[in-house]
Write a structure and sequence with these properties.
Elements: H1 2-10, E1 13-18, H2 24-39, E2 43-47, E3 65-66, E4 77-81, E5 101-106, E6 117-120, H3 127-137, H4 144-157, H5 168-178, H6 184-192, H7 197-207, E7 211-212, E8 218-223, H8 225-231, H9 242-246, E9 253-259, E10 266-273, H10 279-285, E11 289-290, E12 294-300, H11 303-320
The structure holds manganese (II) ion.
């Protein structure tokens, strides 16, 4: 962290970015980081590959996130948050010339440490938790808004304090954040109780695809392009669907296969595990990565073929143990 602080102090103008298909932690850690840099008189831009999902439009300062890659920006350092590889920031990578300093702040175990400065803490619950530590180390006071952002980053990345990445430190930080006047019940409602009728209809279609592998230890679901056109639902609203598959008793790995909306021969694959199974290893074997209990990869091929390949690979990996 000291290296990060030194790099921040040395530079004046910053570009902030995070991984494609943004969710709670990536959005909130970027917005909180921006507030921290502004508080110490830095110039800051946030540029992302994708527009934030509609259900996060309530986040304070969200309009600062631009997806305009053509706009000329003057910056001398880039802060990349919650992003294990440079590839995962998408087209934003093209804006960062070789002369720019790259500061990588991440909690993914699979981080490729692509920065000039890398602060990777796989024990941190979220990138938001790391930004919190920066606020404290740099003596920048939190506000109700920045406390809310960091709280939501932690809330969403820990599955509401349910996952193994939740530690006593996570709870201590959450406790401190609540002291800025946050009401946990209201925050939870604003994050989780924003589904539309369409989203629930999509959930119904997705759950009807549920299958279990031969071993009885892998449960999987699929989202097809047809389901999205039929319901008119937004793919971003499927966050959390995979947990229904994982919640089945006896299941060790849950997989969600999503047909890519732009490229018809591409499938986005998400993995969630329990009972100590390492899905980062499985995702890595397919060129992806993430965390021990939550990871993902992107595969070329038709949905049925990709499904068969992935499920066979997981079943094989169980046999090797
Ligand atoms: Mn994260």
């Amino acid at each position: 962290m000291q290296e990060v602080i030194a790099a921040i102090k040395k530079h004046k103008k910053f570009l902030i970015s995070a991984h494609v298909n943004p969710e709670g932690d990536s959005l909130c850690s970027q917005l909180a980081m921006k507030e921290m840099l502004k508080a110490i008189d830095k110039e800051v831009y946030i540029v992302n590959n994708d527009t934030p999902p509609d259900h996060y439009k309530f986040l304070p300062g969200i309009s600062a996130i631009s997806t305009d890659l053509t706009k000329k920006m003057d910056f001398d350092a880039a802060v990349i948050l919650d992003c294990p590889t440079m590839k995962r920031i998408g087209a934003v990578a093209g804006l960062i010339g070789k002369d720019k300093m790259i500061i990588n702040i991440d909690h993914h175990i699979s981080s490729e440490k692509y920065g000039d400065v890398n602060w990777v803490d796989a024990n941190a619950s979220s990138a938001g938790e790391m930004v919190y530590k920066l606020f404290k180390a740099m003596d920048v006071p939190l506000t109700k808004e920045t406390a809310l952002l960091i709280y939501i980053a932690i809330l969403t990345d820990t599955g509401s304090f349910n996952y193994e990445n939740t530690s006593s430190i996570t709870h201590e930080i959450a406790g401190d954040l609540l002291g800025y006047g946050l009401e946990p019940g209201l925050v939870s409602e604003s994050v989780y109780e924003r589904r539309t009728l369409t989203d629930i209809k999509l959930l119904g279609l997705v759950l009807s695809t549920l299958k279990v592998s031969k071993s009885g230890e892998v449960a999987y679901l699929e989202i097809t392009k047809k389901m999205l056109t039929e319901t008119g639902a937004d793919i971003n609203k499927s966050e959390g669907f995979i947990n229904y598959a994982r919640s089945i008793d006896g299941i060790k790995v849950a997989v969600l296969f999503k047909e890519d909306s732009k490229n018809h021969n591409r499938v986005n694959v998400s993995f969630r595990s329990k009972a100590g199974v390492d899905v980062n290893k499985i995702a890595s074997s397919f060129g992806g990565g993430g965390h021990v209990k939550a990871s993902g990869c992107v595969l070329e091929g038709a949905l049925a073929d990709v499904e068969a390949r992935v499920i066979t690979e997981i079943e094989e990996s169980f046999k090797k143990k």
